[in-house]
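Reminder to self: tokens first, then the designed residues, so the page reads top to bottom the way the pipeline ran.
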């Protein structure tokens, strides 16, 4: 049965992307009516089966049509937005192109949701705001949401600005619920094959403190965030419960970041990207691990 706390009809942006495909499939599976939007793909059911609208989010008019149900064949009131569309990492496009696309897309999504009277927005922030690639060591470990963003790239700078923008949209509208999910590095099951080789060099994945997020658990986090009903802007780190390594988390920190304060006793492979807040506030609980998909013997 569909969770009554979930909104009935949701627009998902970035729907044909890596995370978007998992999110659309998951939300539809739990009974949410999804209008999938992206500027790429769509006619091919391998991209995203079901209702789809080709939208370039940098064009405000197209976003308003999608959110107000005024595009032909896509009528129906929208209750919430899941905004995942972006150039998804530093270095894929020029800095200025990344900033221009991502900042315009997110402003248009936030503003069009406001214009359409939509009170719930969940969007993809990023683990990068925690200070990746940690050339400057983290302030403590596990890292959490308690210190100010430390963007080190233009991509991350834009994510930090989005978090700030969300705070102001919520200040303007006391009924608005905005949830920023600081996803770790998104993985599909096919991506797990090289994981056992990471152990040979602890420097290889230190850039995000050896974290990852299984796309299916990312989708679960989106579902939990859509059920969140406390007005205001909140951000959450979303990672899996373990690291990508077979070595212990404590030994990794001792070798690579010997001067960094470890704030609590660490479980053997415990994530160094704390998901305590997401567990506590959203009820997020990762169900997957790369260890279930790779033969470690
Ligand atoms: N992949 C990761 O490791 C990772 C980590 C942290 C955060 N994120 C964030 O999660 C979100 C999803 O990432 P992903 O890995 O699925 O990326 P992806 O590139 O697979 O998907 C992003 C989608 O956004 C669409 N898009 C980009 N600009 C658009 C625009 N102007 N209008 C309409 N559609 C547009 C693209 O066509 C693409 O389908 C992004 O916001 C990304 O920044 C990703």
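Designed residues (297 positions):
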């Amino acid at each position: 049965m569909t969770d009554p706390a979930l909104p009935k009809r949701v627009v998902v942006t970035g729907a044909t992307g890596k995370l978007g495909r998992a999110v659309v499939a998951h939300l539809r599976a739990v009974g949410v009516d999804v209008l999938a939007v992206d500027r790429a793909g769509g006619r091919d059911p391998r991209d995203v089966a079901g209702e789809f609208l080709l939208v370039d989010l940098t064009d405000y008019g197209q976003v308003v049509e999608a959110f107000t149900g005024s595009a032909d064949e896509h009528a129906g009131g929208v209750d919430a937005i899941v905004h995942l569309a972006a150039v998804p990492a530093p270095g894929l496009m020029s800095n200025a192109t990344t900033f221009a696309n991502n900042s315009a897309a997110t402003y248009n999504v936030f503003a069009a949701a406001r214009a359409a009277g939509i009170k719930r927005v969940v969007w993809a922030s990023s683990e990068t705001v925690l200070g990746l690639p940690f050339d400057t060591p983290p302030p403590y470990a596990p890292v959490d949401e308690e210190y100010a963003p430390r963007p080190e790239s233009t991509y991350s700078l834009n994510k930090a600005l989005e978090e700030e923008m969300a705070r102001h949209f919520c200040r303007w509208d006391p009924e608005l619920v905005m949830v920023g999910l600081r996803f770790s590095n998104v993985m599909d099951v096919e991506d797990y094959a090289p994981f056992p080789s990471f152990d040979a060099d602890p420097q290889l994945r230190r850039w995000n403190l050896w974290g990852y997020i299984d796309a299916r658990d990312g989708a679960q986090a989106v579902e939990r965030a859509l059920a969140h009903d406390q007005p205001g802007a909140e951000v959450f780190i979303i990672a899996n419960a373990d690291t990508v390594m077979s070595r212990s988390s404590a030994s990794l920190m001792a070798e690579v970041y010997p001067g960094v304060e470890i704030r609590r006793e660490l479980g053997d492979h415990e994530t160094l990207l704390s998901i305590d807040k997401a567990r506590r506030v959203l009820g997020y609980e990762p169900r997957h691990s790369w260890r279930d998909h790779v033969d470690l013997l």
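The longest helix spans residues 95-115.
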